[in-house]
Amino acid sequence: MTLHPRAASVPAGTPTKITQGSETRGGIGESTLRPDGTLKVTGEFAYSSDMWHEDMLWGHTLRSTVAHAEIRSIDIGEAVATPGVYAVLTYDDLPAEMKNYGLEIQDTPVLAHGKVRHHGEPVALVAADHPETARRAAARIRIDYAELPVITDEASATAPDAVLVHEGRTDHHIGHVAHPNIVHRQPIVRGDADAAAERADVIVTGDYVFGMQDQAFLGPESGLAVPSEDGGVELYVATQWLHSDLRQIAPVLGLPEDKVRMTLSGVGGAFGGREDLSMQIHACLLALRTGKPVKMVYNRFESFFGHVHRHPAKLHYEHGATKDGKLTHMKCRIVLDGGAYASASPAVVGNASSLAVGPYVVEDVDIEAIALYSNNPPCGAMRGFGAVQACFAYEAQMDKLAAALDMDPVELRQLNAMEQGTLLPTGQRVDSPAPVAELLRRVKARPLPPEQQWLSADADGSSVDVRALPGGLSNTTHGEGVVRGVGYAVGLKNVGFSEGFDDYSTARVRMEVINGEPVATVHTAMAEVGQGGVTVHAQIARTELGVNQVTIHPADTQVGSAGSTSASRQTYVTGGAVKNSCEAVREQVLEIGRRRFGTYHPAWATAELLLEGGKVVTDGGEVLASLADVLEDEAVDVELEWRHRPTEAFDLRTGQGNGHVQYSFAAHRAVVEVDTELGLVKVIELACAQDVGKALNPLSVVGQIQGGTTQGLGVAVMEEIIVDPKTAKVRNPSFTDYLIPTILDTPAIPVDVLELADDHAPYGLRGVGEAPTLSSTPAVLAAIRNATGLELNRTPVRPEHITGT
């Protein structure tokens, strides 16, 4: 940066003219690099599992080997006698009256008491001087189980004589469900769907099954608890929501919240799976009992039991349309399996029901969504949060309806697409851009990938690159029996917490001069889980405060809550909080400048002033003073909360209400090659078009869209946790048997980004991370159906579903 030179005798505050190139670099709208990016790709980034403390112990959790059983006895004698063991804890050792926790319903025991309700439930804890010693000692604990019948589906959960997963429920949902094994029920009723069905020329129905998906984050659950001199505990942990953890942890430790001090450590992915507690309480209990730091790190097997998963679902849909393709009505029933504990199931039900119609105009709807208690693994938050399951079903329905009407499936969608001003089935009006038809147009207009890409460019074309074929390097085909298919889908996702939740965030921003340069420090409790929030916060500070040097303070509970890193909300809500606090800092800085230099130039009192390039400037570009001269030794420090527009709960009878703050939209076109003889699928391209409102960091936006698209691809063709329907035991808790897409499975993902501003949001932005996870899955399924002619109403599609074997 250069400024016109100022004579040494001219007082500070004398205006000069700003010159080309002096603007602040790295502000919003630029693809600035992530501060943690290089460290992560070179393996130098410190994740929570890398933490170390002198004289620390290792903790281990003993988990149930059965899914539903009474605990007759627990014998810890051999474990306690194991050399190197410092503590063995069971339910009877818990220090406080509160012994349960939970995001909304406190139904999850810290350690099982009286019975276990799912395979892998924590029963006992061990602390030892070596992780292998802790594991061996835990294996010596003897538990006598009396197995009970397992609840694994809706029929067994709601039978009149069904065993209750939770006896004596007192939570606020119990009053409006038909059976104690139903966690929550949400109907959405608008118009008269039965009467509208009489006007339909075509009606299509379908039953759909969505498998249980794991978040499959690469960094396992881990943390370090350090007892402090005041009787409290310091917890360094990988999580998504520090203050929610704190609210649940402190009561079961019997401590006030100010004695449980939490700091975010390096997080290796989350996708919803870290919104619930895992090892946090266990590590703290062991540290407080032994008086020593305790580290806990799950291995991959334990990680599959240590966090919630995506709700598996069964969905029944009915759509009607006139012969020209206008939708007349929609009916659906969505059954989500929440597993043994409530977690986020009530909110997932709210999302699934309120978004069940998709991005379409349908005036007459009858929707019901429920979540079950069962003895299957607990399910809760995962990217897409109830909208993913619904999108899979309603998009399959749109293809089925298009076929029945002999219409192009994209044109049918465009004909019924919602737009700004559309009234949703909940009675809420969409008051920001909703470019559904345009997104579909863009993905359809893209050129298709060349045919038979596996053939080489040799003169005779005889050489085959099997990597481009179904089966890949297993060399199962050279093109024989391979058929191409193309499919489309579009989805609707809410942004932020909904249904009246007080969704706010807090940001503390400080500006001061360090070594002659103005520096801004941003302090929030936002969990950086890989989404790039720390990058965006620095960009916002540079934009609002006109500084190049921005420090991001480690996230901890010494500042107010930032809410969860979920629901595509952090850039919107915590970004909004950072912007809001920066604006307050800016005003204080300008007031200091007016006080010190206001007599030098009338612009201090009359002009619109900006902070740009480390200077105070007028909107005409005239420099009034440097920030270093304005602040000198003074620092400005502001901590403020910021909230988006309020929402309201859905009516429990009709589902009416302004339940969501913002909506996001994405469309996909999938191109697949299918080996119809072996049932193998190769996704060639998965193009996406998405409206992001405003891309604060375009490169990060594209990365989020491509990542969400890849997770949707995974559940389409390979990802599913298999639970034995007879025993409720997990069959595949490893990355050997639970498959996720690798680089060889991931196709080209071209992205078309629209920026249609939402005037209600900071900078006009729209949450990005979840929408591509919705429509990628049904687009892939549609393409496979197009190639094979099969109905394929479940995810993931397996080879036997294609071959019929």
Folded structure, characterized:
- It holds the Pfam family MoCoBD_2.
- InterPro entries: Ald_Oxase/Xan_DH_a/b (IPR000674), Ald_Oxase/Xan_DH_a/b_sf (IPR036856), Ald_Oxase/xanthine_DH-like (IPR016208), AldOxase/xan_DH_MoCoBD1 (IPR008274), AldOxase/xan_DH_MoCoBD2 (IPR046867), AldOxase/xan_DH_Mopterin-bd_sf (IPR037165).
- This is Molybdopterin cofactor-binding domain-containing protein.
- Residues 42-149 form the Aldehyde oxidase/xanthine dehydrogenase a/b hammerhead domain.
- The chain is an alpha+beta fold and 805 residues long.
- Among the domains are: 48-148 and 222-297, Alpha-Beta Complex (Aldehyde Oxidoreductase, domain 3); 435-493 and 660-803, Aldehyde Oxidoreductase, domain 4; 504-643, Aldehyde Oxidoreductase, domain 4 (2-Layer Sandwich), CATH 3.30.365.10.
- A 7-stranded mixed beta sheet has the order 4-8-2-15-12-13-14, with helices on both faces.
- The longest helix is centred in the last third of the chain and has 28 residues, at 570-597.
- The radius of gyration is 28 Å and the shape is globular.
- It starts with 15 loop residues before the first strand and ends with a helix.
Features:
disordered N terminus, alpha+beta, Aldehyde Oxidoreductase, domain 4, six-stranded mixed β-sheet, AldOxase/xan_DH_MoCoBD1, seven-stranded mixed β-sheet
